[in-house]
Design goal:
By secondary structure, the protein is an alpha+beta fold. Helices cover 22% and strands 48% of the residues.
């Protein structure tokens, strides 16, 4: 007896749906293991804000054209749902970049003269990237679908001799964070962005039951084909600190 075509089609639909559900569960399992390396679900769900302080070191060129290290005091704040503030303080400049939901701004200040400053509003593309970045730093891999993003499973790969699961967190507008999770431990080993930036984490600090990296290494390619490395060493992380709205809102542009 021949099986009717409609029955075959129905069986195929059931099979495809089951396979899709199995794949989704597999990705969910990878994400759940990765989150468990950071902290408990209760601690992660209670997270509302993060406040990092530390020192940024990068390579530069001095007046003689010689390579030199530049050290900058750095402060980074993230607050749900879409607030971010970064303050970079060097000997000759204080640079503040902030996001307040759909508004973003940047201010450069001369530390020796409060009357010398310049402020600009961020573009729509810059704001979209900062919103995605804020989500990535507070959500710890879970719930991107709620902001109309997707997780693309890129399979198992080998990184530094370790078997890893490679997942691409796609936020739309071409913004993608591709992450490599260690199959053995669930830990995040590497993050890549769509524009070729590579981010690694080293060491750890445990604050309020959550694990944070002690050091972040950011490697990017320059136009001449060379690479630039930026390292940030954190000395403190504050979790769920009360934060004033004025840290994020656009300041008045009067002198």
């Amino acid at each position: 007896m021949k099986t009717p075509f409609r029955l075959l089609l129905a069986l195929l639909v059931v099979f495809v749906s089951a396979a899709a559900a199995q794949a989704a569960a597999s990705v969910d399992e990878v994400i759940a293991r990765a989150r468990a390396t950071v902290g408990s679900e209760a601690a992660l769900k209670a997270l509302e804000s993060l406040h990092y302080t530390g020192e940024l070191t990068t390579s530069a060129t001095n007046e003689k054209g010689e390579p030199a290290e530049v050290k900058v005091a750095i402060e980074i704040i993230f607050q749900r749902p879409y607030r971010q503030r970064i303050v970079a303080t060097s000997a000759n400049k204080i640079e503040i970049t902030a996001l307040d939901d759909y508004e973003g701004w940047q201010r450069e200040q001369d530390p020796s003269d409060s009357n010398r400053w310049r402020m600009t509003l961020l573009s729509g593309e810059q704001i979209k990237r900062l919103r995605a970045n804020t989500w990535e730093n507070l959500s710890f891999f879970h719930g991107i679908e709620q902001r109309r993003g997707t997780v693309n499973d890129l399979g198992t790969v080998t990184l530094d001799g370790k078997s890893c699961r490679k997942l691409a967190f796609e936020h739309g507008d071409g913004i993608v964070f591709t992450r490599y999770f260690d199959d053995a431990t669930g830990r995040l080993l590497l993050t890549e962005t769509e524009n070729g930036i590579r981010i690694r984490e080293e060491g750890e600090m445990v604050v309020d039951g959550l694990r944070f990296p002690r050091k972040i290494i950011i490697i990017s390619k320059l136009d001449d084909g060379s690479e630039r490395t930026v390292s940030i060493i954190f000395d403190k992380v504050i979790v769920n600190e009360p934060l004033a709205d004025s840290l994020f809102t656009i300041p008045t542009m009067t002198r």
